[in-house]
Amino acid sequence: MKKILLAVFVMAFAACSPSTKITRSWTSPDKSYAGYDNIFIAVVIGDITKRQVLEDDIHDKLLKLGIESTPSNRVIPPNFWNSTDLTKNEMIQAIRKDNKDAVMTVSLVDVQNEQRYIPGNMMMGGPMMMGPGAWGMGANFGGFWGWNHPMMMTPGHIVNDRKYFIEINVYDTASELLIWSAQSRTLNPRSMEKFSSEFSEIVLLRMLEEGVLKTS
């Protein structure tokens, strides 16, 4: 059943052109050979609303793959991650409460703003090259120029790009070792909802491909 769900998951993702891409990933030789199927999800960012949206999206997509998970926002107070009194033991206790076999953390590591120049378009031609139907627009010079000039001389312009770099780490709960790590890059996300859905899909797909998630 999980293999069928995996195939559907892959086909659905392949049908789109994502703005999020995995730029690198690493898998530890100490990773469980079978993969993990009970995961604690912790998005470590300051914005509580965005944290919940992303954690819940990852949780929902894992559920469709038949993998159990718990978002941190369901068991940990909102100010937990920012607490200066947070200790390692408290963290481990919170995660092991539901017998999780892995911890997945997501954190924003960098935001870059870049400008790029988009050249204008130059189109050569007149009424003859545009076909007989264009003669009505170019019967006099004023009509010809008004019809063709915008297409012949489209000016260039500057586009502002914003790139978000996010790090994803997965730890084995028993050994507390890092067993998988990846970094993603997202270009100009349209909305938090669209980014969250796309990000969770591309990350989970890579985790499936590299044996981090249990598929059978």
Automatic annotation (TrEMBL):
PROSITE patterns, per the entry: PROKAR_LIPOPROTEIN
Protein known as: DUF4136 domain-containing protein
